[in-house]
Amino acid sequence: MNERGIRLPFKLLGVPVLLDHSFLLILPLFAYLIGSQLSAYAQILAAVGVHIDAGGLQQGSLRWVLGAIGAVGLFVSVLVHELAHAVAARLYGVRTLEIRLWFLGGVARLDTMPRGRGAEAVVAIVGPITSFLIGVLLWLALPYVTQFPGTAVVISYLAITNVALALFNMLPALPLDGGRILRGVLELFMPHLRATRVAAFISAVVAILLGLYGFFSMNLLLVVLAFFIYNAGRAEAQAAVITDAVEGKLVADVMTTDPMTVDPGMPLEQFVRMANYRPYPGYPVVGTDGQLLGYARLAAAQEFLAGTEGGDEGGTGAHATFSGATVADILQEAERIEPGETAMAALSRIAEGQLGRLMVTDASGRLIGIIGKSDLIRLLRGSAGAEAEYGGRSG
User: What pLDDT sits at residue 64?
Assistant: First the structure.
């Protein structure tokens, strides 16, 4: 188990699967809900002409066993739904990093969103189609198992639920499949950023209506879903702005050149005083030949000096005893990137890294620049300014 959940020890169609902690909590709840409503499912079947004697299913622990089987079957159906997305994305050359099952269902995390005319719509629509087909096939199999009441009730539940999930996922709201289909269709007529903004606006309207319906019908799950959809739609719009700004840009186009560096032999007492007049949390460490040796954090230096006998708190006072320690004593590995990498790749690396910045090195390992969050923010601001100017001209 890691900090996010349990990763299955095997891959499905080459895709890792992660069971989120929230999934582990919600699975028993679904099992309870399904097991406690077996009679209601039997009544639904009777209304459509399928008669099952569910009386014996209420005895002992059988209802809870059937509830657990139904809950597991539901999430297996969700997993197949997400695998369909992964297979479709692979046809466009997009890798699926993982499939995560959590309390709201599942999500296939793609390396990047497939681009091209209608590509996102194609990848998105295969999910609901798959769920609908699962539901139809299970329903067609129902007449063959009516003599086994427990099996019939579970299969009917999964059939109805899969069709319901397919229909719900077709709502035109990001990040649901319907929202991605909407954006993919809009991209046939407008740029990606504008299509995302239109889809995000529609998503907000759908989320508000869904939330109001859930509130007045006292359906807490719908309220939670509405809140999730509203925030996810906004996040999609923000991500589109970033993608539009960095698309086509290389690290060399964005990085800060001639960054300030420190020597590995600099005394730590001198190094920590850089915090008094420089806003940076750390500095790249280079040798006399310009080779990048690593990265030194001011916080690490302060912690080192705080534990040095004779130093005052943090080792930053004017009368701190000289410890003899140097920057080399707190050196850590630098997070590197080459100037020819894309700015989008740098953004992803920065988000996943620990330092919030990447050291840009040439083929020989010499430091030639730094790219950090401030460089990307500057790029975004420039993109926003250009867009505003374009809008003024077209108006």
Answer: 82
